[in-house]
Specification:
The chain has helices at 65-74, 76-88, 146-180, 218-231, 239-248, 252-265, and strands spanning 24-28, 33-39, 46-49, 55-59, 101-104, 107-114, 123-125, 136-140, 188-192, 199-201, 206-210. It is of the alpha/beta class. The protein binds zinc ion.
């Protein structure tokens, strides 16, 4: 069998405004506002307030700069309200040291590092010890450096997440087949540390869940699992997907809102 290799010339890129321009910083000193500005392929002006309070404005090439500045000026009150919202929900990431805090099922546990002994395993202790101090995680750790503590916390979290999420997925999968009256089943589960997403589902039905989900209160963890289980039925976020999700969790919208707040208040590592 012959294989012919022909070299095709790539079509020259169109000289339209297809490419985004490099971002630049613009400011409205009279209002104490500065923002990142970019010309983009978007059709309308877009203004985003990021969780750190910074502003991003994207505009199509056809919109003159004066109109962009007028638009930002006109949204001043909305920008301030968003920035205040993010500021009031801004949380600190975990601190990996003895006395730091880790979360399990929405509950805070104080980290207590202990020297590693033979057979010693991390233990979540719920009760109060000698009358004071709240729940804690006893964590065998080879030394107290932040790197060693971080590695030990993440190893503990991943091992526990694999068990907890597999059990929860099995239970909710059963419920989903019952409520949605079909035979859809996940092909498999992968659990790993994820910084941006909480979960995903491939067209083949392979579900991936973030190990950090075990830090969330159970109703929020369940929401993410149910969301991915609904993707076994619909790969989009269409009304049909929403309907299926509501049949599993009637308060899905409220849980989504709470997850967004949790994410702001508990930056992920
Ligand atoms: Zn989705």
């Amino acid at each position: 069998m012959f294989l012919l290799f022909t070299k095709k010339r790539r079509p020259a890129p169109k000289r339209s405004a297809r490419k985004a321009s490099p971002p630049e910083t613009l400011s409205l000193p009279e209002h104490g506002l500065s923002f990142t500005f970019q010309r983009d392929r978007c059709r309308t002006l877009r203004l985003t307030v990021k969780p750190d309070g910074s502003l991003l404005v994207k505009a199509p090439a056809a919109v003159p700069l004066d109109a962009v500045l007028d638009f930002v000026r006109s949204r001043r009150a909305w920008i301030r309200a968003k920035q205040d919202f993010f500021l009031s929900h801004r949380g600190e990431g975990p601190q990996f040291h003895d006395g730091g805090t880790v979360f399990f099922l929405g509950r805070a546990f104080t980290l207590r590092t202990v020297p590693p002994r033979r057979g010693a395993k991390p233990r979540l202790m719920g009760g109060r010890e000698d009358g004071h101090g709240g729940p804690f995680l006893e964590l065998p750790c080879k030394d107290g450096t932040p790197e060693a503590v971080e590695a030990a916390v993440k190893a503990w979290r991943l091992a526990l997440a694999k068990q907890v999420l597999a059990r929860r997925l099995a239970r909710l999968d059963e419920l989903a087949r019952l409520r949605l009256d079909d035979g859809a089943r996940p092909a498999g589960l992968t659990v790993r540390s994820l910084k941006r997403r909480w979960g995903s589902c491939t067209v083949r039905g392979q579900i991936t869940l973030a190990a950090q989900l075990i830090e969330l209160p159970l109703p929020l963890m369940d929401y993410v699992i149910c969301h991915e289980l609904c993707h076994l039925r619909r790969m989009d976020h269409s009304p049909a997907f929403r309907t299926a999700l509501r049949r599993l969790l009637p308060d899905a919208r409220e849980r989504e809102r709470r997850i967004r707040l949790w994410s702001l208040e508990h930056p992920r590592v």
